[in-house]
Design goal:
The strands form two sheets. Strands 6-7-8-3-9-10-12-11 form an eight-stranded mixed sheet, sandwiched between helices. Strands 2-1-4-5 form a four-stranded antiparallel sheet, with helices on one face. It is globular and about 65 Å long. The chain folds into two domains: 169 residues, P-loop containing nucleotide triphosphate hydrolases (Rossmann fold); 74 residues, no CATH class. Helix content is 31%, strand content 25%. The chain has 317 residues and is α/β, with parallel strands linked by helices. The protein is built from ten helices and twelve strands. It binds adenosine-5'-triphosphate (ATP) and magnesium ion.
Length: 317
């Protein structure tokens, strides 16, 4: 399968007053054309940092990029100049930010903002952009789009605002959409509608999507593959059709077992500074002696399955 994006060996730390914290360690994730790839993991596992790094949005300082490449159309975005990044950001790779507050301009009406975004990306008349704006609002399930076009962002409910942001992100017909918890604030019906929209975008025009969520249920519904992150590391990569029966990492099993696929927040449970070996050691019920002192690599169990756990060392190919 053709890879549209490759995150290779990405390592990122953040500086603070008493030293540095590792946010990502040797993250490698490939995204295939037209696939929906899920990234799941508890709070603080590094999902958002990964998403921001793809568009070279990590501020340095406080961030330190220790290693890695982000390969998009043969170019390393971590080395690209502002000019390239400006043509990539939003146009070729769109990101729906987890923190939505700053994504909309409060002083322009919704129609104006959408029309501006569309005309910024493609050569078209105002009336064509207006028509396309209406279609986009309809697509994301915003009722009465003609009226909504004349309103301002603060006149929309949180759910409608979220859908408007999704409409803006897809307005440019990007090749890749990175959606960071895009449906968390939405009720179940709207959530389903947005997920269907992502599914349709991945089929036609073949948009590739990285979907970040806490919710394994959502993953299982629309993703082809899932990457499970814990404490800045990829713990498992697995195709969704294997997830229920063949997921291997004890952390993935913990996620699957937690109620209705929701992950409880377990931050700070482990004493990170004491860990020499596996980062999951303190929470793992199946830990071996060497897990305390040795760091497991990612073992390849199959072409669509990798796991960072010594329990599977012998099965690796
Ligand atoms: N600007 C920053 N400065 C310092 N530390 C940061 C910064 N951004 C992220 N971090 C740290 O990097 C780690 C990963 O954070 P990240 O936001 O990627 O987690 P996440 O998986 O997206 O969590 P959540 O599910 O809560 O959104 C955390 O330990 C976080 O505190
Ligand atoms: Mg996040």
């Amino acid at each position: 399968m053709e890879k549209i994006l490759e995150i290779e060996n990405l390592g990122i730390r953040f500086k603070h007053s008493s030293g540095t914290t590792t946010a990502l360690e040797d993250i490698s994730i490939g995204l295939e054309k037209g696939e929906i790839l899920g990234i799941v993991g508890e709070s603080g596992s590094g999902k958002t940092v990964t998403a921001h790094a793809v568009l070279n949005l990590i501020d340095t300082p406080p961030g330190i990029i220790d290693s890695g490449k982000i390969i998009f159309h043969g170019e390393d975005l971590l080395k690209s100049g502002l000019k390239t990044l400006q043509t990539v950001r939003g146009k070729k790779i769109a990101i729906i930010f987890q923190e939505l507050m700053n994504s909309l301009n409060p002083v322009f009406c919704i129609g104006q903002q959408l029309i501006d975004v569309i005309r910024n990306y493609r050569n078209c008349t105002k009336s064509e952009a207006y028509k396309r704006s209406l279609a986009l609002l309809k697509n994301v399930g915003i009722p009465d789009p003609v009226c909504r076009m004349t309103q301002y962002p603060n006149q929309l409910s949180g759910g409608l605002r979220q859908r408007l942001i999704i409409a803006m992100a897809i307005a440019a017909e990007p090749e890749i959409i990175i959606a960071d918890e895009p449906t968390t604030a939405l009720d179940v019906t709207i959530q389903a509608q947005i997920l269907r929209l992502f599914q349709n975008l991945s089929k036609d025009p073949g948009c590739s999507i990285i979907l970040i969520t806490h919710n394994l249920g959502i993953m299982a519904k629309i993703c082809k593959r899932v990457v499970i992150m814990f404490s800045g590391l990829v713990m498992e990569k697995i195709s969704v059709n294997k997830l229920l029966n063949s997921a291997s990492h004890p952390y993935t099993l913990e996620l699957l077992n937690s109620s209705r696929g929701k992950i409880s927040l377990n931050e700070n449970k482990e004493k990170k500074s004491d860990l020499l070996g596996c980062k999951y050691f303190n929470r793992c019920s199946q830990a071996l002696g060497k897990c305390k002192t040795n760091k497991p690599g990612l073992f390849h169990l199959d072409s669509d399955h990798e796991v960072r756990c010594f329990l599977f060392e012998k099965e690796s190919r």
